[in-house]
Amino acid sequence: MRKIGLIGMGNVGATIAYTLVTKGLSDELVMIDKNEKKVVAEQLDLQDSLGRLDSNTTIKIQDYSELKDADILIITAGKVAAMGSGADGRMGELSFNKMVVADMAPQIKASGFNGIIISIMNPCDCMTQYLQEQLDYPRNKIFGTGTFLDTARMQKVVGQSFGVSANNVSGYALGEHGASQFTAWLTVQVNGVPIRTLQHSHNVDLDKFEEAIRLGGVMVFEGKGYTNFAVATCAVKLAMAVFSDAKLACPVSAYSDAYKVYIGQPAIIGKNGIESLTQIALTADEEQKMKASADIILEKVETLRH
Ligand SMILES: NC(=O)c1ccc[n+]([C@@H]2O[C@H](COP(=O)([O-])OP(=O)(O)OC[C@H]3O[C@@H](n4cnc5c(N)ncnc54)[C@H](O)[C@@H]3O)[C@@H](O)[C@H]2O)c1
Question: Which among 53, 71, 231, 285 is least surrounded, fewest beta carbons within 10 Å?
Fold first, then answer.
């Protein structure tokens, strides 16, 4: 039996729950939120859809003890309204989400949950690391969505420019899920052809792409006050990779021994969470960007620790 826990039933949590229930991806779902009225309403609304679906999901709410035998826990608690504007805005939630972790970590611990944790709350790398430390959880069993979302935005930007579908663009955005993230262009291929090869014949400006990717979420955020569909899709794909032991190669926020922080880097996702990290060649400039990103994350993690 497949069982997923979801803490935080705001824009992102509700979208993940809707996806899991309507696609029949989890047999049991446990939904938890500080806002009791909201989580009850989401439970009722989702249950109202069951009569039109080909699968059934048992939806439980507000019970941390139900996490004991859950396979996966997705954390989407937070306060999106605390986010500032621009690509750096995610840092606006830092102090609120520190309190969220202080509230939920002891309850997760007490539940006896020992599955895989996928953390989404922002700032994503910092909060994933802080949660890991507060739970004293095995590092391979907790990771953040990190630059998996930025990579999808890169696939969109590049795909649209070349007139191919996003799925036909591969490669990695790396670093902080924030203003200092960057695309490792040597990894990017369009229909299997390195973008570096196509760059000149197609008159491509990688700096313009980079800016569009970095600001990818800003227009969405400014338009509706939150972002939900893309990140929820990322989280569900990662959860399915864990359930099916897919050994999915993708960038997520994983712990780096070199930088001592959680940071967006290529990893293999399977039933044990982070099965391994993939070492890819970075240019000297990219190494510097990675280090700069790690420094930003570490500084914020330090403020969380004190
Ligand atoms: N990593 C990413 O790529 C990415 C993308 C989008 C959003 N996010 C982040 O995901 C989080 C959720 O976004 P959202 O738009 O759903 O926010 P939201 O404000 O709509 O929802 C947050 C929910 O968390 C609940 N909550 C707050 N404190 C809680 C606690 N202690 N225990 C349980 N629930 C609690 C709130 O009641 C609310 O329902 C935010 O931190 C946001 O910045 C991350």
Answer: 285
Q: Name every residue whose Cβ is closer than 8 Å to that of residue 78 and which is 6 or more positions away in sequence.
A: 8, 10, 93, 96, 97, 100, 121, 122
From the candidates 177, 200, 202, 306, give the one annotated as an active-site residue: 177
Question: Which residues, other chains included, contact 220 with Cβ-Cβ below 8 Å and sequence gap of 6+?
Answer: 227, 230
Of 159, 179, 146, whose CA–CA distance to 266 is shortest? 146
- Of 41, 77, 75, 46, the C-alpha closest to 59 is 46
How far apart are the C-alpha atoms of 196 and 266, rounded to whole Å? 20
Q: Tell me what pLDDT residue 88 has.
A: 64
The pLDDT value given to residue 216? 78
177 tagged catalytic? yes
Q: Output the ligand 1 site: residues, CB below 6 A.
A: 7-13, 32-35, 38, 76-80, 83, 93, 97, 100, 103-104, 120-122, 124, 145, 149, 177, 226-227, 231
pTM for this entry: 0.97
Q: In this predicted structure, what is the pLDDT of residue 218? A: 87
3 CA distance to ligand 1 centroid (A)? 21
- Provide the angle, in degrees to the nearest 10, between the axes of the packed helices 216-224 and 148-162: 100
Residue 119: count other Cβ atoms within 10 Å of its Cβ. Answer: 29
Q: Could you tell me if 249 and 274 are in contact, meaning their C-beta atoms sit under 8 angstroms apart?
A: no
What is the 88 CA–ligand 1 centroid distance (Å)? 17
- Give Cα 192 distance to the centre of its chain: 26
Which tokens belong to 132? 């890991």
Which residues of the chain are under the pLDDT cut of 50?
none
